[in-house]
Sequence to fold (236 residues):
Amino acid sequence: MEEILTGIVISSKDYKEKDKIITLFSVEKGLVNLILKGVKNPKAKLKASKELFCFGKYNCIFKSSNLGTVIGCDIIDNFTNLSQNIDKYLEACSILSTVKQLNLYGQADVQLFLELMNTLKILNYENNQKNIVLCKYLIDIFTSMGYKLNLNYCSACYNDLSENIFLNMDTGEITCELCQSPNSIKIDKLIHKNLCIIANEKFDKLCTINIKNIDEVVSVLMQNYEYRFNKKIFSY
Ligand SMILES: [Zn+2]
Fold:
């Protein structure tokens, strides 16, 4: 039976001699694996549809529930800047690695899909400081997965975070010094300030800000992600 899936390619691998197998993150079915026949041929009609970040309407035939074959594709956007700029490419790969790890095979997640598309759009079309879009995406992912970072007050005693600030790695919550646990890490005040700036800024306004210690901010967010989901984000 033919089905049209709207989605973005999050992985593309060689399959047999002339084919490719892609993982599509689709609105309708979450992750699906799809075969694209003969697309290693440069003249193949569907060759652009196999590329990483290709976003389109994929016309597919499914023989089993988790493997289909693409018979046509209307491309909506290739996000070409993501493939052509190495910094944007690596940042986008870090973001896609979180989607792969959620293992949403056959499971639609419209909210995550919209968050991902919005993030990749900003990354592709705006000129942002390297990794700032990744930071914003991770902060938003924590919120939508039920681990919102409360940056304005201690999550345990609700007092203001005026002095030393800690991140409890067991719970993913920000606390004051008195409420820290043995598995808390101290968050530098400047990192905390920059987390607040990124959290409070809209995606499309991120290009207007520049964060001095962005690498340290990324590192804290990645550590939190690894503790929350027990998975490592692709980084370089
Ligand atoms: Zn406290």
Summary: Residues 94 and 234 are 5 Å apart (CA to CA). The helical segments are 80-84, 86-101, 110-125, 132-144, 189-200, 214-229.
